[in-house]
Amino acid sequence: MEWKASDIAALVQGTVEGDPNVTVTEPSKIEEGKPGTITFLANPKYESHLYRSQASIVLVSRDFIPERPLPQTLIRVDQVYQALQKLLEVYQHQATPSSGINASAHIHDSCRIDPSAIVGPGCILEEGVEIGANAVVHGQVYLGPHVIIGSGATIYPGVRVYHHCRIGKRCIIHSNAVIGSDGFGFVPDDQGNYQKIQQIGNVVLEDDVEIGSNTVIDRATLGSTRIGAGCKLDNLIQVAHNVEIGPRTVIAAQTGIAGSTKIGANCQIGGQVGIVGHIRIADGVRIQAQSGVAASIEEPGSAWYGSPAIAYRDYLKSYALFRKLPDLFRRLLSLEKELQSTEELSDQ
Fold first, then answer.
1. Which residue in 2, 48, 96, 156 has a CA-CA distance of 20 to 30 Å to 273?
2. Helix H segments across 15-60?
3. What does pTM read for this prediction?
4. Which whole-number Å values give the CA distances from 41 to 27, 192, 273, 301, in the listed order?
């Protein structure tokens, strides 16, 4: 598909500076721009690449002033990243598979699939699956019995959604994520052998949730493991059974959350954070990467760092002192030697 500069400007509510009829077929990085592509400049540190780029169109902010004349057509916008988001959304939509149900998909007779939905090759849809309008289920996806996929959702290849789980509207689940695997529940018997506690709950993803590749969200023992509306989870995250995450919370890669923990809304959790089970984290809490949270955090909007995590500013002060410990130790030894010498002289 070819886009004219004038059409792109209308989409992103921008102003064309240059040739409104120049056309592009795809986006590109500013460092790798070539004729027929559109790129963007949002961060000033990348400006030098702009003068070498061969891209045909560049999205820039309205107040951008180039150091020298540019051959590219510019589209000036209020917010470059927001304009880019709109543009990439349209471009991604073009990559959606052709409509309908692929002949190689295995669909149980009881499934209810909206006529506008797409089911790719090699998919398996078990009894009672429901797929909403304009949802896209890419190839080799497994949907267990009575799974519900909301309208406008996108399920990428290799995703597994276990029985009775519910995926909300406009959710995105990336390849090889597993939704609804058994929670880690066992109880030792009289002989010390671990007996499995059956996990009969489900997972509920509310609307507009995005789940990264290879992330695993365990089903509840009873009730639901719940991910709130608008949450964004990165790749390689483990969410244990009966965890509840409030709306619009974002979590970076390799974080692990143990069972029955309740995380509030609008939290920001960095990569490789470990959170113990059965605690509560208040709304708006920020947890720095590689922190370990071993107790509830009750103060909304607070920031935490370290393992075990402490208040962010306290951690920075403590770390500043920690870095000085070798020097302080040397000074202490020197003072001890001076004191010992003084005592020896006084004894003579």
1. 156
2. 47-50
3. 0.80
4. 12, 62, 33, 32
DSSP bridge pairs for 118: 100, 136
Segment 325-336 shows an average pLDDT of 86
Phi, psi of 134 (to 5 degrees): 60, 15
CB 122 within 8 A of CB 103: no
The amino acid sitting at 29 is K
Whole-angstrom Cα distance, residue 304 to residue 319? 13
* pLDDT surpasses 80 at 346: no
Are the C-beta atoms of residues 63 and 57 closer than 8 Å to each other? no
Please report how many Cα atoms fall inside a 13 Å half-sphere around the Cα of residue 264, on the Cβ side.
17
Tens digit of each residue's pLDDT (9 = 90 or more) over 253-301: 999 999 999 999 999 999 999 999 999 999 999 999 999 999 999 999 9
- Mean pLDDT across the stretch 315-341? 84
Task: Please report the domains of the chain, with CATH numbers, ordered by start residue.
Answer: 3-94 (3.40.1390.10), 101-314 (2.160.10.10)
pLDDT surpassing 80 at residue 102: yes
Structure tokens at 179: 């939704």
CA–CA separation, 211 vs 236, rounded Å? 10
Catalytic residue among 163, 164, 241, 278: 241
Neighbours of 210 (CB within 10 A): 19
Is 241 among the residues known to form the active site?
yes
Helix orientation angle between 5-12 and 80-94, rounded to the nearest 10 degrees? 120
Q: What letter represents residue 106's amino acid? A: H
What phi and psi values does residue 335 have, to the nearest 5 degrees?
-65, -40
CA–CA separation, 309 vs 322, rounded Å? 16
> What average pLDDT does range 163-172 have in this prediction?
98
